[in-house]
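Bug report (template v2)

What were you trying to do?
Predict the complex of my protein with fe (ii) ion.

What happened?
Run completed; filing so the output is reviewed.

Input:
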Amino acid sequence: MSVTEAGREFVATGSREALLARFRRVRQASITMCRPLRAEDFRLQPIEEVSPPWWNLGHTSWFFVRNVLEPFGGRLVREDAQYDFLLNSYYASLGSRLPRSRRGSITRPTTEEIYRYRASVDQRVEDLLETVDPGHLDALSSVLAIGLEHEQQHQELFYTEIKVILAQNLRELRQPYRAVPEEERPVDAVDPLRFVDFAGGLLEFGHRGQGWCWDNELPVHKFYLAPFALANRLVTNAEYQEFLDDHGYDQQLLWLDNGWARLQGEGWHAPLYWERVDGCWWLWTLDGMRPLPPEEPVCHVSFYEADAFARWKSQTAACHRGVRLPTEREWEQAARSTLCEPQEDAFLESDRLHPACAKGGRSLAQMAGCLWQWTSSYYEPYPGYRPFLGVLAEYNGKFMDNQRVLRGGSCVTPREHFRVSYRNFWSAPTRFQFTGIRLVRSEE
Ligand SMILES: [Fe+2]
């Protein structure tokens, strides 16, 4: 069995022992990140897009049941059938499922039962890995790799979701995901904003080489780009506050019509998690409330806010005339042609859980990790796109509709997920992800 097209095998090479070690490491990380939670935190779904942690723990296990244990003859148990309806996310080809909006309204299975279910799935996958016929090992490894990539995507989601969940509590009763003592917070300085020139031309895009990638990063294809100049770093809180101070949220002409409707409907007046207390801006973080750090990149903005900010910025000075959000291919070309080495505090492994400042005088800072960067590109298939085969055809392709592409990874993205060709996607109003703004300028 293969989930990929012929000639494009995503085989997770390595011994059974190496696969087993990776499986255990990734699965354990999901358990570890839930340790700071209290029982009540596991069940809340404050908005439809935010799944409660119990569901994430169960759903990532379900993924291995339906895509690994079942197709490869692994041992099945009664709970596999009992929980199937609850834990299927969006796979229509795998049957009916609980509406997403109801994940926070049920209390059975209990969180404890979900933990037991995880342990059972882990044991059965390990048994399968140890006993599978050598002739099927490569195929099993391919699907197992997708299951682990999927689990890591949910680990990133977990941090964004628990941030929303904990923010629901009254400010005076709120508790952070974890508390970092004041003296341990790194003190940051920021590079001045400038624009870095890139030549255009007929260029290649998409994932190159033999390493693993999602189906949406392929095929490699050519596309013509005009010359452009990309900002050396992300927009900071201080720069975004100038937009607020200039009444950016009151100037309808700066906004796309759908964005303006959303602003009015939901009462947007600042990025998500900015709170005005006694005349000063504060920021809700996974470490608790902090005075808004002016030098840090602005975070938790929707595509609409990023787009309106760029339009405002383009009107503020002659040197900024024409600034806008980059296309995904401009971003990729810039990342490819510069040394895109991440800062050491850019990804999840740094345990920072918060975007770091641009520093170190790099040609382009904050390209790898830090914050996902909105692009102006719609999430569309590359020319000649072919989805994974079978059930996993539903993983990416069917969402190529009315969403925008984000590039770069974030401070809660696992380091091994970063690729210059990686395409994240969210709908334009989304604010609860770690999203930021990088500007670009067309060159004459
Ligand atoms: Fe999922």
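What did the reviewer find?
Residues 39 and 170 are 18 Å apart (CA to CA). Confidence is low (pLDDT under 50) at residues 1-12.
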